[in-house]
Amino acid sequence: MRIEDFKHVIAEWLSRGIPEVRDREVALPLDSNLIVAVTGARRSGKTYLLFSTIKRIIESGKASMDEILYVDLEHARLRGLSALDLDDMLIAFQELTGKEPKYIFLDELQVVRDYGGWFRKRLNARIYITGSSSSLIPRRIADELRGRCVNYEVYPLSFREYLSFLGYDPKPDILIYSVERGKVLSMLREYLYYGAYPAVTLESDKRRILRAYFDSVVVRDLGGGPLAEVLALYLISNYAQLVTINRIYSYLRSLGFSIGKEKVIEMLNRARETYFAFTVEIFQKSERKRKTNPKKLYIIDTGYPTALGYEFSISRAMENAVYLELLRRGENEVYYWKEYGKSVGAEVDFVISKNFEAEELIQVTYAENEIKERELRALKKAQKELKPKKVRILTWNYSGKIDGVELIPLWYWLLTYPN
């Protein structure tokens, strides 16, 4: 029986109340008949999204504080929980409040063994769950909850949210003609340099927090130990570049790790499942070609290279920021393009497609007043082959058109959604 443990945890919640929250662009529904699942990287703001939702529920009059059950399932008193213990949670809440909860919020549900079965009983409450490990990713949630949930993904702050957290509300269409855009460019550089975790944005000692995240979150999520740390460092140092399983495998073997390629694949899958690193395939309709060609690597936050002492590359950080923004905008068919049959051929950073039909090409370049010929040449070659509807170059601070290609400053593209 875990009733007393739950009483302590729930009493803390009821007495402490809702902490101060800042609005995010992701808003959870208040009246869904499905379980609302929130997934994403640790420290990206999932818990505070729950708190924001609770605040909206109370302000709308749908429930009072003593009708809302929130439990941090990683609380020290709740170690080793199984699905059977969740009944004790409801008993504890009713003993403390005399009420059944109208809303149930379960934070970091992946620590509960066999949680799926518990949700198959009839509960007279709207339910919200979060998770950040490979035990609670959209695919596994779907398996456990069998069509009874809707998923929302949370990433570190968008540039729009970042500026809002810092108390700045720019008007992009005015700034494009104003000298004040220098302020936005300065803030964009800081956004790329230190990344966009909410807590990092609001603290002064950003490197220390990022280093702590690396040690306590990233390495642990990859399995812990020296191998996980070395792989994480490799991924961070090679972000926004092409990688292969063979290259990673050879690197790890050269450092004395006795592992097979299957282990490398397993750890890369874990990096994706825990929202630490993402790989983008080449744009090819042939699945075999997609799987056998090198993949482009991106990471959850560009502050990690800074915190770990790697040289800052603004062009790579810009490209990584574009990829994360595409994820936020719900683009699930994102590829890169490379000239076929040429190891050093033309390359385009992003192809956005629908059912393998190219919709848009995006090239990212650190350009302030001119575009390099190779950037245009690559786009033109890809455009001729793929025939997309849109062709764009995202620059640092250069706008206009060249040969029908739209040039858009990155800050403007990040601040205007949709565009």
Describe it for me?
- This protein has about 425 residues and is α/β, with parallel strands linked by helices.
- It folds into two domains: about 5-155, Rossmann fold, CATH 3.40.50; about 160-415, no CATH class.
- Helix content is about 45%, strand content about 20%.
- Strands 9-10-11-12-14-13 form a six-stranded mixed beta sheet. A five-stranded parallel beta sheet has the order 2-3-4-1-5, sandwiched between helices. A three-stranded antiparallel beta sheet has the order 6-8-7.
- Strand 10 and strand 11 form a beta hairpin.
- Helix 1 (about 5-15) packs across helix 3 (about 85-95) and helix 10 (about 205-220) packs across helix 11.
- The longest helix is centred in the middle third of the chain and has 16 residues, at about 205-220.
- It is globular, with a radius of gyration of 23 Å.
- The chain starts with a helix and ends with a helix.
- About 40% of the residues are buried.
- The model has no long low-confidence stretch (mean pLDDT about 90).
Keywords:
419 residues; alpha/beta; Rossmann fold; 2 domains; 6-stranded mixed β-sheet; 5-stranded parallel β-sheet; 18 helices
Summarize the model shown:
The chain has 419 residues and is an alpha/beta fold. It has helices at residues 3-16, 46-59, 86-97, 115-118, 138-145, 159-165, 172-175, 181-194, 198-202, 206-221, 225-237, 245-254, 261-273, 287-292, 303-307, 314-328, 373-386, 410-415; strands spanning 35-40, 68-72, 103-107, 126-131, 149-154, 242-243, 277-280, 295-299, 334-338, 347-354, 357-364, 390-395, 400-402, 405-409.
